[in-house]
Amino acid sequence: MGKTPHTIHFPDEEKNISDRYRGFHHNDLDDCIGCGNCSTICMNEAIDMVALSEIEGGKGDSGLRPRVDYGRCCYCALCVDVCPTGSLNMTKDFIQVTNDPFEFLMTPGKDNPEGKDKISFTADMDTSLNVFDRVPMRELDPTERIKSFAEVLLGYNEEEARREADRCISCGLCTEACPVHMHIPEYINAIARGDDEEALKIIYDNNDLPEVCGKVCTRVCEDVCAIQVRGEAVAIRWLKGYATETVNNADLIKQIVNPEIREANNYKVGIIGAGPAGLTAGYYLSLRGYDVTIYESHKDPGGMVMYGIPKYRLPYDSIQKQVDYMIKMGVKIHYNTTVGKDIEFNEIYNNNDAVFMGIGLQDAWSLGIEGEDAKGVWSAIDFLEKVNSDETVDIGKRVVTVGGGNVSIDASRVSRRLGAEVFQSYRRRIEDMPADWEELEGAEDEGVIFMKQTIPTRVISDKNRKVTGLEYLKAKMVAEEGARPRPVAIEGSETIIECDSIIAAIGQQADFSLLPKEIADKLELNRGKIIIDDNRKTSIPKLFAGGDATRYGNVDAISAIADGYYATIGIDKMLMGKK
Length: 579
Prior knowledge:
By secondary structure, the protein is α/β, with parallel strands linked by helices. The longest helix is centred in the C-terminal third of the chain and has 20 residues, at 557-576. The chain is globular, with a radius of gyration of 28 Å. The chain has a five-stranded parallel beta sheet, covered by helices on one side. It starts with 24 loop residues before the first strand and ends with a helix. It has four domains: 16-121, 2-Layer Sandwich (Alpha-Beta Plaits); 142-247, Fumarate Reductase Iron-sulfur Protein, Chain B, domain 2, CATH 1.10.1060; 259-361 and 517-576, FAD/NAD(P)-binding domain; 364-506, 3-Layer(bba) Sandwich (FAD/NAD(P)-binding domain), CATH 3.50.50.
């Protein structure tokens, strides 16, 4: 009792401890994405996710970082074992003496920046509890698939879907990235536990074309998946496809989803265009009690997903089945009805309480080079529409496609299926191509030959004005500060490639000729795109718009679906607000 306590100098004494001792945590704040998996796994509830002033959230980063309560922590390191980025580790540092109980709340990486020099326990990809490799997708052999328009991807079976869904850590970063904020972790968890019908109900809550998205979505959600930081993203798109394509008819969709349909409110909404934006607005407005009529110029619904996406990626039945379900929910569609020709815009505008316009981008940009009026020069959207409409298309034996996006890749792969040798001209590097990497790989597997850093300059034709070749200049990439390298033509590098057809896919623009002059003059545009607010309302009273004709960045199906969904909310606010 009379001795001096032997622990009095404990904090200052050097201790011999195990190399794998688990003391305080250290977190690399820059590598951490704030997924919260550490907080979720902690059985002692010792980890909270907190905002730090020096951390800005963004795409794929919640902006939050873990804070550990060492009054609760048992140093089990499960949080380290499940950290998908590998940013969270444990250190040999374990001593903290204070009279303030709140000092035992530590934000690793911020409160102990020196901890990075004392790391003693970490979980690499081999020892992590996460599964970093996705379940592969079965697909047709390239040598077989170019012989027909059979669907390339064969889809997950039940066992494959369950295994892949089990990889999801439910961080929710994907939901934030999704344009329509689908409930992604919720439907994936339903698949993982074997409740496919519940998954379908969750999906249809804010996506009326999920099978389309399950096959051709640009899946920005997967770009921010926590697992993809060190491994392969959870196959969110393919899991959505699994949950939707096994329901093989509209009646069964109706039976399973069984949405609430509100009592008729006596408001009428006219919709121009039966593309993803128009169909989505029509479906969710119908559920809210509106009398909805869609006017579509083609004989089939779907817009660009019907006429612009090849059937080996998106079969006709996938679209029609979902539209048949919408019709059962009360949506009326008038096909072969061109606004401005078969019915005037003012008639629709004056006879409805609100109008939604989802007209897409129908007019292709020209190449702007000499000789492009020759026979055999196609715009990709015209070419794909004719093929999808089962029209006979003669492109010859050798084709050059121009462009680097998904549309140009589609044109190349379709041309291969029509028996042509195909060359793809792009003015930048392959890694700069905006096309989906899966589409690029598919094209390469099918024999498309890429001509990178080539700038078309002239179409060569014979005396009958028939295409015989394409002249181009080779390009070098010039670095520019703050931007991607710019292609600059190499003087004197003129080269001619012989071909029978040239298919241009360098962009499209909207056609506003359906609008009467008094409306067109008042419609606010920016660089040819309709200006809309957050409710998708235009500068014209009671006129809403969405889809490709309003977008500068993501011109894709899921973004159009988001526009239709949020326009529904905007129209509902405007009209039901009167009551």
